[in-house]
Design brief:
By secondary structure, this protein is α+β, with helices and mostly antiparallel strands. It has 11 helices and 12 strands. Helices cover 40% and strands 19% of the residues. This is Protein kinase domain-containing protein.
């Protein structure tokens, strides 16, 4: 029989019911499950937030505490909640709820006391034990097997396709990078961190901004100049795919990519698998074309991946090895990480 605390806790119910919608959460609940935001439960931090593990009776969640010092951060919070409330996909991190708490607080200053608002903003997500993709990126000589990498690439592409074309409004992520892609027990990728995202109406194709924020190395040239389009995300996707293939950001020479994988494949399947690597590398290079009009959109990318798989029919031959490899990863990295 469930305890009264479990029944009254919306997060406990959401862990049981996959179809449950995100909901408002109390600050007292978030304090309780994070032991008052204990450093011992901190699992990641970034420029705008700190992430804590939240322990429940029936599982674990991740609680993202946003830094609240500038008005801009309030805008980022509202944008992120708006985007997250719209999405539900196997390759998008599951959003479980939010907390927006504002209280008056007296601040002691030299010679006077000042009453001011203290804002606290939180987002709650499913907990993904393998942490972020950037922790798993390496060259071909070690780390993830080729088929694990391919499945991660495919999952990211499907998640981005859903954001761009899966609803009445198009969602441009604007900060796609390995640190914003989390991995579950089975190494399935899930896109996260929608703080910089933009919503486009069905017919809208671009927006301009004078406040360019993002991650160097993953931003398209037109985005750095203030122009936001769906193709800005495609550029970031291309950089990520090449990084997954090579372990390095910015490597875009086909020969370098193939050279790193040539010695890793068994002779009987090596040529076929190497061609599969080549196809993925060529697709990634198209994504990072300096001319956004020459980049494929997610429909083109998904179509090309679907065309590849019947040709390279070895895609399921590594399933047993992949399962063993994943199990070893879970044992060695059970606490997970968020950045």
């Amino acid at each position: 029989m469930e305890s009264e605390a479990s029944v009254c806790n919306p997060l406990e119910l959401m862990l049981i019911d996959e179809s449950a919608e995100p909901t408002a959460l109390s600050l007292s609940l978030l304090k309780s499950i994070t032991n008052n935001f204990s450093d011992d439960l901190k699992i990641g931090s970034g420029g705008f937030a700190v992430v804590y593990k939240g322990n429940l009776e029936n599982g674990t969640v991740a609680v993202k505490r946003l830094t609240q010092t500038l008005e801009m951060h309030e805008t980022l919070f509202q944008q992120e909640v708006d985007s997250l409330m719209r999405v539900r996909h196997k390759n998008i991190v599951r959003f479980m709820g939010y907390c927006s708490d504002t209280q008056g607080k007296v601040w002691k200053l030299p010679g006077k006391n000042v009453m001011a608002e203290e804002r606290q903003r939180f987002l709650c997500f499913e907990f993904l034990p393998q942490g972020s993709l950037d922790k798993h990126i390496s060259d071909a000589t070690h780390g993830l097997k080729w088929m694990e990498r391919y499945r991660i690439i495919k999952g990211i592409c499907e998640g981005l396709h859903y954001l761009h074309h899966g609803g009445p409004k198009k969602i441009i992520h604007c900060d796609l990078k390995p640190a914003n892609i989390l991995l579950d027990h089975d190494m399935n990728p899930k896109i996260t961190d929608f703080g910089l995202s933009r919503l486009f109406d069905e017919k809208q194709t671009r927006a301009m901004t004078s406040n360019v924020i993002g991650s160097m190395g993953y931003m398209a040239r037109e985005y750095m100049n203030g122009q936001i389009t769906l193709k800005s995300d495609i550029y970031s996707l291309g950089v990520i795919i090449l990084e997954i293939l090579t372990g390095q950001k910015g490597s875009s020479k086909i020969d370098n990519v193939l050279g790193s994988w040539n010695s890793q494949f068994e002779t009987s399947l090596g040529d076929t698998r190497l061609e599969h690597v080549r196809e993925c590398a060529e697709l990634a290079i198209k994504c990072i074309d300096l001319d956004p009009d020459k980049r494929p959109d997610t429909r083109d990318i998904i179509k090309r991946l679907a065309e590849m798989e019947p040709v390279y029919d070895f895609l399921n031959t590594d399933s047993a090895a992949t399962t063993v490899s994943n199990h070893e990863l879970i044992i060695s990295n059970h606490d997970g990480a968020y950045t």
